[in-house]
User: Fold this.
Amino acid sequence: MTEGIKRRGLMLVLSSPSGAGKTTLSRRLLETDSNITMSVSATTRAMRPNEVDGQDYFFVDAPKFETMAKDGAFLEHATVFGNRYGTPKKPVMDALAAGRDVLFDIDWQGTQQLKEQAREDVVSIFVLPPSREELERRLRSRAQDSEDTIQQRMAKANGEISHWPEYDYVVLNSNVVHALSQIEQILGAERARRTRLIGISEFVAQLTEG
Amino acid sequence: MTEGIKRRGLMLVLSSPSGAGKTTLSRRLLETDSNITMSVSATTRAMRPNEVDGQDYFFVDAPKFETMAKDGAFLEHATVFGNRYGTPKKPVMDALAAGRDVLFDIDWQGTQQLKEQAREDVVSIFVLPPSREELERRLRSRAQDSEDTIQQRMAKANGEISHWPEYDYVVLNSNVVHALSQIEQILGAERARRTRLIGISEFVAQLTEG
Assistant:
C-alpha cells in the first residue's frame, strides 16, 4: 500500500502436532518474507550453550517471570516440564503498531490466550500432516526411542490435532513448497484486510473532494 | 487440497467506482485462474448485435424477470436506466457446491443483497483508484463528453467509494500487476479458510485413529 495508506501488523500463528513439518515451514517463511519476525519468548529454563539471550529466548528467573505474569506482561504463558514460557506483550505490540508482522509457533492453548488478548490481530493457521503413515514415520524418526515414548507422542499429536476447528485456516502439508505458498497467500491476503488498514478514510477524502 | 479434503467454492465480489480499473482486473483474473468463472446476469434489456444469450447475459422479458424475482430466483437484482438486471441463484449455488468460484462485478447495493443471502460464501474486495487525478483522467477519457456528464460521473464515483468500509478487503490499484497479485493472494487464502473445507473431520479421524 502506498499513498499514505498504512497497515497494522498481524500475529500469524502456526500450530500443528509435532511431525507436521511446521518448524521447516516457519523457518522458510522467515527466510522469504522480510516483514515478519519470530516472536521471542521469555523462559525460566536454563540457557543452553548454543543459545543467545534475547534471540532464542529472554532468559529470566522464576520470581521475575511470576511478576511479569501478574502484571499482565505476557500475551500467553504456559508451564512445560516444570519450566515457564511466555510471550512478552510489549515487543509484539510495538511491532504491530509499526506495521510489522510477528510469527508464533505455539499450541492450541497459547493460541486461545492470544485470541483472548488481541482477537483482531491474530491470524491462525493449523498445519495438518498429509497422512497417518507420514505422521507416524516422523514421530518414529529417532530410532532409540522406546515404543512407549512413541505412543505418548502419538497421543499428544492426536490431542493437538483435535483443535483444528478453532483455527481460521487449515493447510495440509503434503508438499513444503505448496504449503509455504498457501501460507504466503494467507499472509498477503490478511495484509489487505480492511480492518488492518490505517489512513484509508483520509485517502478516500482526498479522492472524493469536489 | 488432496486426501479427500474438498472445499466449497466462494463468491468473489469486486466493487469499485468506474475508473478504478476493475474491468481489466476481472478480465486478467479470469484469464489466469482456471477455477473461477464470471457470474452471468439475467437482463430485460435488448440483446446487442455482438452479444450471445447465456454468455454475456441471459436475455429475458419483463414478465419472466418479475416472476423470477418473486420466486426468489435471484441472488441480487437492480434496475438501471429502466432495465432490470439480476444474478440467477441456481447456477451460482451449483458452482459453489462443485468447488468452483464465481466472480461478481457488482456495486455496493448488489454486494449487500448477496451478503444477505449467503454471507459465509461472499468474499468482497473494494478496488480503489490510486489518486483523484488518475480517477478524473479516466472518467474524462471520452473527449466528446460534456462537463456536466463528467461531473455526474465523478459524483457517482464518490457515492460508490463511500461504501469501502463494507468490504472485507481493500486493494489500491496503482499498478495492475501488483493489484492482481493481491487479488490472487486473497483468493488463495480464502480457499484455505477452514469454514470452506469439506471432509476434514473425516481426514482427521483417519489421522488420529489408534
Notes: DSSP finds eight helices and eleven strands in chain B. Chain B touches chain A through 46 residues (CB under 8 Å). Chain B has a mean pLDDT of 93. The CA atoms of residues 4 and 33 of chain B lie 22 Å apart.
